[in-house]
Amino acid sequence: MRIVIALFIAAFLQAPALAGGAGWSFSLRDTPAGPLCVAATEQNGVTVGFYGAPLGPTYAFVKGVNLPRNARSTWQVGGYEWRQFVGAADSYDGVHIYPGIRAHFLAEVAAGSRLDLYLHDASLAGNAPLTGTLGLSLRGSSRAIASLLRCQAEHYQPAYHALIVIEAYALPLPPRY
């Protein structure tokens, strides 16, 4: 019986979805440029997710991994084909940003159970050498991705309103002599 309990505890601690990992979450962040819709997860010290402004394009990001300035990554949701994206490090906080994320790929992430990330050096030809491999649980991703897409589809209404009044006066010109 002790062996069964020990095996159960070992399996429980190895699976982030079962070990009480935070899973995926959605947040709406206020930035100087306007609202930012974010769906992300943090697992094993690495934050991965997607973000975009309302009515804007979607980007993927990876934070907490030591990558070259320009990095290529291969993203594969279990049961779906792999996708390759080339990104660059944000000079402000070192987050690697990958543009060109399509709604079809987000639907795969929402429907999947595991996301494998293969990180490459973009300056080298081919897919080698790998600089890292991440396996992430997609627990809670369907709700977070749905909230991200809903947030991006909404038209942002600014919280401030301005009333501009223009007044014009017609003054008679003095006669010319």
The geometry reads as: elongated
**Helix fraction bin:** 10-25%
Number of strands: 9
The order of strands across the largest sheet is 1-2-3-4-7-6-5-8-9
Could you tell me how far the N terminus lies from the C terminus, measured between alpha carbons in angstroms?
115 Å
- The overall pLDDT, averaged over residues, is 77
Largest sheet: 9 strands, antiparallel
Task: Flag low-confidence runs.
Answer: 1-21
Share of β-strand residues: 35-45%
Question: How would you classify the helix and strand content by structural class?
Answer: alpha+beta
What's the Cα radius of gyration?
24 Å
What's the tally of helices?
3
Structure, briefly:
This protein has helices spanning 2-14, 103-111, 141-153, and strands at residues 25-31, 34-43, 46-52, 58-63, 70-77, 83-89, 96-101, 114-121, 130-137.
How would you sum up this structure, described in words?
- There is one protein chain.
- The chain has 177 residues and is an alpha+beta fold.
- Helices cover 20% and strands 38% of the residues.
- The protein has 3 helices and 9 strands.
- The chain has a 9-stranded antiparallel β-sheet with strand order 1-2-3-4-7-6-5-8-9, with helices on one face.
- Helix 2 packs antiparallel against helix 3 (141-153).
- The protein starts with a helix and ends in a 24-residue tail after the last helix.
- Mean pLDDT is 77; it is low at 1-21.
